[in-house]
What we know:
Helix content of chain A: 25-40%
Strand content of chain C: under 5%
Largest sheet of chain A: 5 strands, mixed
Number of strands of chain C: 0
Order of helices and strands of chain A: EEHEEEEEHHHHHHHH
Number of helices of chain C: 7
CATH architecture of the largest domain in chain A: Orthogonal Bundle
Number of helices of chain A: 9
Strand content of chain A: 5-15%
Low-confidence stretches of chain A: none
Oligomer: heterotrimer
Distance between the termini of chain C: 80 Å
CATH topology of the largest domain in chain A: Fumarate Reductase Iron-sulfur Protein, Chain B, domain 2
Distance between the termini of chain A: 73 Å
Mean pLDDT of chain A: 91
Strand order of the largest sheet of chain A: 2-1-5-3-4
Low-confidence stretches of chain C: 1-5, 10-18
Mean pLDDT of chain C: 85
Radius of gyration of chain C: 23 Å
Bound molecules: flavin-adenine dinucleotide, protoporphyrin IX containing FE, iron/sulfur cluster, FE3-S4 cluster, FE2/S2 (inorganic) cluster
Shape of chain A: elongated
CATH class of the largest domain in chain A: Mainly Alpha
Number of strands of chain A: 7
Shape of chain C: globular
Amino acid sequence: MAARELTFEIFRFNPQDPESTPHLQTFKLTEEPYMTLFRALNRIREEQDTSLQFDFSCRSAVCGSCGMMVNGRPTLACKTLTSDLEDKVRLHPLPAFKLIGDLSVDTGTWFRSMAERVEAWVHERAPFDPGALEDRMDDDLAQAIYESDRCIECGCCVASCGVANVKPAFVAPAGMNRIARFMMDPRDARNDDEWFEVVSSDDGVFGCIGLMACADVCPKELPLLEVYAYLRRRALGSAFLARKKG
Amino acid sequence: MEAAGAGHEVTIISLVPPRRSHSCAAQGGMQAALGNCVKAAGDSPDLHFLDTVRGSDWGADQEVVRMFADSAPIAVRELAHFGVPWTRLRPGPNQYHIKGERVVIDEPEENAGLIMHRDFGGTAKWRACYAAAGTGHAALYAVDGEVVRLGVQVKDRTEALALIHDGRRCWGAVTRCLRTGSLGVILAKCTVIATGGYGRIYGQYTTNATINEGTGASLALDTGRVPLGNMEAVQFHPTGLWPSGILVTEGCRGDGGYLLNNAMERFMVELEPAKQELASRDVVSRHMMQQILDGKGVDHPAGPHLWLDLRHLGEEHLTTKLREVYEICRDFLGIKPWEDLIPVRPSQHYSMGGVRVNKDGEAYSLAGLYAAGEAACWDMHGFNRLGGNSLAETIVAGRIVGRTVASHAGGVEIDIPISLANEFLASVQQRIDGWMARSGEGPSVYKIRDAIGEVMINKVGIFRTGAELEEAVVELRRLHDQVDAAVLTCRAPGPNPELSFALRLKGMAKLALITAMGALARKESRGAHCRTDFPERDDANWLSRTLVRWGRDDEAPSFEYEPVGFLDLPPGDRGYGQAKRVEMTGTLEEYNAGVVEGQRGHGMLDPVEPVGTHLRPGAWRDAEERAGLGKIGGGH
Amino acid sequence: MDKAVDVLRSGAVREAGPGPGPRLTRAEARRQLAYELVSGLSGLMLALFMWGHMFFVGSILLGDRGFNWLAEGLEVTYIAQPTVFIILFLFVLHAALASRKIPAQLKERRRFFALGKELRAASGQWRSTGEELPLKPHVESWLWIWQVRTGMVMLVLGSFHLVLMGMDILTPLFGDRMGIEASTSIARTTAGLVWVYGVLLVCVEFHAGIGLYRLAVKWGVGSRLTRDMLTRIEKFLFWFFIGLGAVVLLVLASVIPPPLAFLLGG
Ligand SMILES: Cc1cc2nc3c(=O)[nH]c(=O)nc-3n(C[C@H](O)[C@H](O)[C@H](O)COP(=O)(O)OP(=O)(O)OC[C@H]3O[C@@H](n4cnc5c(N)ncnc54)[C@H](O)[C@@H]3O)c2cc1C
Ligand code: HEM
Ligand code: HEM
Ligand code: SF4
Ligand code: F3S
Ligand code: FES
């Protein structure tokens, strides 16, 4: 089988350069066995255009650095095999995030502000006691928390969600997932009532209109839709409870 | 966190958002002797201490190991407090796979819900605590959550390019923003380096992330004051996926995977008839490298590789028991391991060496500078790190170093002339201008990087000989000098990825050279440092730690050797790997008497508590018997 | 300095998303919960009504007699009259609440559109080498855009139809008497309303089908596996009602005779 020649159409724009305008640039590259976009992009940068900006770190789909739009789908470039793509490969940066340059976007700032907003840490019930045994936890619960904790903050879901794209105040898929992760955790002292304003609003889970793109693109295949359903039910439950209490 | 908790203003800078740090790649687990499950019963920090010191081939500082082993359980429990969803113990019959056998063990009801352990890293007892398949990820996120809670400022996409110091004390760093390319200065009473390993000096032959370029070690080295410790101690892994370098677990060979060369021969059968593919990591790696060097590798545009054959294990086994391997094959190779062969190559895995610090984490010869994690040579790993110990180290060291920093920072005021900071800023600017000004013909920075990687893996790899190391030193020297002639082609304003890399290249070249020179000088085999021409561990001459400094105007680095630290557990057999050794000449007491002065002489700053305070001499005695292991069994 | 770009449509400028904003007050949150519930419930009730409606109008398959009998039955029991108002109310309520979710600005709608289109088109640009697809095809975003469009069409045609029915039931303006009669229905449909109803039919079934599917997923009926199943159910219902509706429409438009009229001996 002769190696294919791949044509890359890459979005180029350097906001730091007053002369730069957004455009698409074409590169050609011969495909290699087991080639991922990690290798392809590095080869393009090293052999053809050293100014090309993109982000990789772990190159093994665990760090979440390399989200980009590959042929119209937000996904992790490092785990995208060129053999899964047609001869023409279109690469765009993730929408919904601030562009740093070319394929590189600022997911870090977004996720930090999300973490601050949903207070993504365990609100402790008591200070840590170094002398004590760990609190017990049922393994099923631990696994359920882990399932949500697996999110690598790649931002693919955010980029794929129409609402998150037009409404910056929306906590977006990854944010809702983070909320659910801490809601589930019995170590967290916050009760449903305290979560209410964050969850039960158009900026929270009711901002979601069920587009489902997030769940389809999530490279970690997180059960996002179940997460939202869980949040909706909890929001509803706490609204009723609060009413009963007076 | 410790410092911020104590009310200090803390700024974290990082090349990537902190949650993207390489720690997220650690899947296996984190060692802490909680002794919760049946296979861990009787475990204790004493056993953990024994395993770690033996693993280090007596290269570790035993007091640090002691501090570490004693604190690891607390660290793990604190992480639980921060929200890490540790896998918990399920009472009743549990099915485990032990050495390929299916075993059912009844876990007692009274331990239900405690943190579970798994067998990882060849320890005497099951000790690794884990959060499903994402231990490092979960730990990193929990800790970063605390960072957000404390409101610690994080400047991500910011790189430290030089440390500001006056020769006695470090006062912060010159930074470059990787969003805009602009330079800045951060003044600090205390500066901590936690920049991870330097695996990328092995080019693409590493399991490490692309950001593990040893920048922290370079920063310290560039001060001209701070020594790096044991840089020649580098750990390898036999099966890195090719060409990406992603780690493929040991388990697939344990379960019966074969290694094949380009002629489809199972070369391990011929070379190691007894253990075949199950020989130890270093042995397997060495034979693999030899096959490749003998031209028996399989061609690939990125370089030759070998095959890992799992086809005979069958689809069911691969998609259940070796699920992670299957997923890696699917996602990164697009193959089915029950139908296709897997391309692999030995790869660099962990850097034991790093910025040499005392037990408080404070760097030698430069007050106010600290280091922790893989970037440091705190030295609990000595010449070989046990799997699962490094993640635990990052947390334990973070606690200890953080506390020291918090207390030290209290007594310091920043009183340096602004001109000092400006001086360092100007010199960084000069470096950048230098790169930008140079034009014309010259090698590309990426070519130099690749060349360094080739030399490192081929000549400063798993098995080393004097002749090869000499060649390596010559070649690396040449490559190091070539860096100054390299030419950039990217002139775009802003972050300029090529420039960002170029600014690290010199440091990487230096680290590579130091590693090779250190390996050449150390005429023995110890832990991961394996000299085929000196196969014995030589406790008479080399029970020491390598320290290296490189003054700003010096042509070459200078090497010194210091005592490894107090010896509590007397040097003995590791229990695996090569067994030949030369006994030390003096007595333990004689050795120990020279430790403090010896280390001080090499720049150690006195820690808060005197050296040795944390050692509980002899506590390891009979630990194995108490745990029902019998004397001198242990690691395998 | 920070020129922001819309990467979905290279060249166009948009404000960069600053990320999640501030919290809302409790009262606002409570109100938004209510809106969400009401819009979902009204949608659900409308959809259920439409199924009932289909069987009601479907009585025409039994011929004029069947149809008239049912219509009269509903009118003398005073079921039909309030229903008109209730449905009209739900219809307006649902339209008002649901359209809160439609992005207000044209620019935003364009973005929505571009993204949906990209995502839908993506699967064609990926190859599947093995049995396992490299990606799950994604159409739901695109379908949402059509949900809005069909909603808009219904708003116009549906209100027209509702008002017409209201007048039919409550006034003697059409036909021989107050109320719905087969002859009037057939006459006006044949006269040209057939096209209106045709469009309305497709819109309703599409919109309600997708709407119910979404509702199920949103409130957690669907996990990953059952989402495939839900899709299948949704497709089945869609085609079933389209088919039934089409036959009914053909009868109403006097293209074919009532096929089941023999049951009532007509
Ligand atoms: C594939 C793999 C699997 C592993 N599995 C395990 C395991 O199961 N158990 C275990 O215990 N260990 C494991 N390890 C080892 C362990 O992951 C690492 O030793 C540990 O994570 C190192 O953590 P760290 O905090 O020191 O560095 P890192 O996590 O690498 O963090 C370094 C940080 O420093 C920043 N930085 C670097 N340079 C600069 C600069 N110049 N300026 C500013 N910031 C900078 C980076 O951005 C990054 O945030 C594994 C390693 C690998 C490669
Ligand atoms: C109480 C409210 C309603 C009543 C009493 C009613 C009654 C009728 C009647 C009598 C017909 C036969 C045709 C005619 O007489 O013109 C009809 C047809 C139809 N109606 Fe309604 N309707 C109501 C609400 C709605 C609503 C809300 C919709 C959708 C938005 C709708 C969509 C249709 C369609 C598509 C047809 C064509 C029949 C087909 O092909 O199935 N109706 N309706
Ligand atoms: C009158 C014009 C209408 C408009 C403008 C309209 C608009 C919308 C919109 C925009 C949504 C999406 C809301 C969201 O996702 O939160 C929606 C949902 C829905 N619509 Fe309508 N609609 C109309 C009529 C109808 C009718 C007649 C029915 C019943 C047949 C219906 C049934 C539904 C259902 C079941 C949903 C799902 C509710 C949800 O997901 O919360 N709609 N509609
Ligand atoms: S939920 Fe999935 S797609 Fe979204 S950030 Fe997390 S890992 Fe990425
Ligand atoms: S794509 Fe967006 S609208 Fe909801 S289901 Fe996912 S968050
Ligand atoms: S580079 Fe880490 S996820 Fe792709």
